[in-house]
């Protein structure tokens, strides 16, 4: 059998390496996919016998084809296998059957939603296998229209996002231009106010001159750039 052949091969390799017996050299374990039930693989217990490891794997692999109750029962059965660990080796300690069962049940419940999706997908796949060519073509066209609709919807979302970015940039530009125009008008008004204040001060100083005559007063202060009148 395969188990005996692997045990013989392992013994031969250990003998070539100068190690007497597989029980004093290393441990073995196997993994079996249980993704259809819990979404991950199950690992068999570590054992020093490759024959026992192969037996565990065959037992668990056969149970995976029979359904979850068989997988659960088989894993609980092989998890009860316990051997003393090698000196200096560190590994997972032996867990009680109750703890193993609780871990399996929790993993099975967590994967319930995904398991339903996989079952629905498998049902659709099996249903398509019995459709005629015309029905398959109709289904293909419907799926193509759905993909195109989703693609156009994504393109529309991207276009709307681009328009929002452009509109936001335009508003920022308008706001910046408005702020610059406001600052320019404020600066112009400030300059005009300063000029009016200077002219007011100049008029006040001109009216307080002691050398003004009645003719100068009637004529008024000189305009900017003109010469001030004085008495003779």
From TrEMBL:
- Which keywords, in A-to-Z order, does the entry hold? Coiled coil
Coiled-coil region: 156-199
Annotated protein name in UniProt:
Uncharacterized protein
Q: What species was this sequence derived from?
A: Alexandrium monilatum
